[in-house]
Amino acid sequence: MQSTGQEKIWNILMAGVGGQGIILASDVLAAAALAAGFDAKKSEIHGMSQRGGSVTSHVRFGRTVHSPVIEEGCADVLLSLELMETLRWLPFTHAGTGLIVSTEKILPANVAEYPAGIEEEIRTLAPRARFLDPAALAEKIGDKKYVNVALCGVLADILELPETAWRRAIDAHVPGGTADANWRAFCIGRDLSSSCPGPGVSSR
Amino acid sequence: MKQRLMMSGNEAIALGAYEAGVAVGAGYPGTPSTEILESLTGYQGVYTEWSVNEKTALEVGLGTALAGARSLVTMKHVGLNVAADPLFTSVYTGVKGGLVVVNADDPDMHSSQNEQDNRHYARAAKLPMLEPADSEEARRFTSLAFDISERFDTPVILRSTTRISHSRSPVSPSGERRPRADTPRFERNLKKYVMIPAHARARHRAVEERLLALAEYAETFTENRIEPGRGGFGIITSGVAYEYVREVFPDAPILKLGLVWPLPGKLIVRFAAEHETLYVVEELDPFLETEIKAMGIKARGKDFLPRTGEFSPGLLRRAFQAEGKTDASAEGLRSSLRLPPRPPTLCPGCPHRTVFKILGRLGVTVSGDIGCYTLGVLPPFQAMDTCVEMGGSVGLAQGIEIAEGIDGAGETEGAGRTAAVIGDSTFAHSGLTGLVNAAYNGRRILIIVLDNSTTAMTGMQPNPFSGERIDGKPAPAVDYRTLAAAVGLADGDVAIVDAYKPKEVEEAIERFLSARRLSLLVVKGPCIIWKRKRERTTDKRG
Hints:
The complex is a heterodimer of chains A (204) and B (542).
Chain A: E1 10-17, H1 22-35, E2 39-44, E3 54-62, E4 77-80, H2 83-88, E5 98-102, H3 118-125, E6 130-132, H4 134-141, H5 147-159, H6 163-173, H7 179-195
Parallel strand pairs in A: 1-4, 4-5, 5-6
Antiparallel strand pairs in A: 1-3, 2-3
Chain B: E1 5-8, H1 9-19, E2 24-27, H2 35-41, E3 47-50, H3 54-66, E4 71-76, H4 77-82, H5 84-93, E5 99-105, H6 119-125, E6 129-130, H7 135-152, E7 156-161, H8 162-165, E8 167-171, H9 190-193, H10 197-220, E9 225-227, E10 233-237, H11 239-248, E11 254-256, E12 259-261, H12 265-273, E13 277-281, H13 287-294, H14 313-322, H15 353-362, E14 365-367, H16 392-403, H17 406-409, E15 418-423, H18 424-440, E16 446-451, H19 480-487, E17 494-498, H20 502-515, E18 519-524, H21 528-541
Parallel strand pairs in B: 2-3, 2-4, 4-5, 5-7, 6-7, 10-11, 10-13, 14-15, 15-16, 16-18, 17-18
Antiparallel strand pairs in B: 1-8, 6-12, 9-11
Helix pairs in contact in B: 1-2, 1-7, 3-5, 11-14, 15-20, 16-18
């Protein structure tokens, strides 16, 4: 994964909890990369992990991608849909990784209390992490169903994929009749990025 | 530019089979193989079915092949254990139409009870095995597998792993479907298809000759390729491990094997001769390594690479760093905060939680089975004492009962309260034979079927108890009461209760346990995920 010059491979790790919709978000991203003319690979685990377990989806794109999984310390972006999961997958990031963190808190089964100090710990280790409140975002969009696509919009600002590629990817992956609503959500997410200080990303 | 689609390895296998003109697809759901048949069902002109288990699926596939049509049979690695009986002898009968068995291994056991390396089956059963490294290869190799099957008159195994099946990468469809040669028709060939010893002896010789011919074919098979490079060492690898090797060593010389059995001996010797040091990089067992060493070639692999779990670029980089062959791997950020683990759990609204609550409280010995409900072993329930294989709960409970001396040796305190807990799909798969065994041999266990109307663990597939086929068309549902009566259970030893009436469930469990007779309790409560999905589909249709 040590890449140079035009051979840059983008590594985007999405993390969360089974049932949060990581698969759709990562499908959209991978399809957008493909539509933009890149080679792309994506990997995640189904099965047992769907039952409320911790889940990740790896998306990689560039000129030629070999491994479907990202190497530890090599993620360009970590998009986390759940607060504590951000820390669980932090070993995949480095000092220059862009962190987009949803402040959603989901209690693991058989745990009485959400651990304290998570957000502070993320801020200390990754000072440029950007936190997003999913409820506020849902309110802005008008429907919480489209929040994950809005988060793709936040990603879009970092990844420099053409807008047409994103549009094609969204049209192809969201349920019939919701493409326009999803596109609006995507744009809200994207504009959120450019209007406030974004997470830093290692240069190409 | 060619059309490119993002496809999972599983979808690509289905596409490859479709393009190869497959007529029949059969299988039993099992992670990570399930989506192959679901995807194939979406194509026109292909008959697909969820068979009752993998053995039956392979028999359906072999019958199709003997009648002259192409068939694809899909299963996870442990499913091939179930199908091993027809597999070994299908190699003797050979095929007429192509027969491709897709076997999906699960290194790291993301959703499995063991980590067996099924490449051994290819060697043991003496048939060719192909192993793709990404989705495009999965498409192409499936099509090739059908050609090899017909050319060499043998079933062929296509081996996938979780990372191949569940990763997505670009696929370029051929845009064509191979036409069927002629109308399938079974033609009698007693010496080839009826494996009495006299016939089978001749067929075994044919199998050995075929293997030699296949090994010769492997030497020039285009998917066994040497990728030249530089550096003081060469690497032999296959499958997803190839992609990890390429990631870590972009310029190293590699012999990539697409056909992992039989091996191209001359090609391997030639490659090995070019390199001072030879590494073999493969997940799980030293399958290639052992064979290569047996050729008298010095090679390294499992002396510094693990035999358990999945590989990854990071794992290879660390291992080869210790060998002095790569730079240090990147350092990730680390937090010192201790996080609570987030394991999968029984869904909060699962109707079958009740049974585990009750069994936990009663303190009976519970032999469990394969499905979501295996999660009943975790807190807060911890109400499961064994889980081995599909249908195993019913047989294991019987052995426990026998050993505890209930049968004939009098009633010991606390012994004999043994319950088998099994899901509807698993019960159909291989619990039924256990039930017959229990009745036949006078056992006194309680068998509890947790019927949730679907095969939930693998993503909601219908089964013989749910009254529906793979394509959503109605099917007769097996009737529990009639079934129990046919086996020999008295009317009073069978009950069907509503999972949402915990009092009735508890009363039935206690009654059956104290009666100490062979009994069948069916607890019915549809899977909540399945129900939600159903309602959404109905809404859309309405």
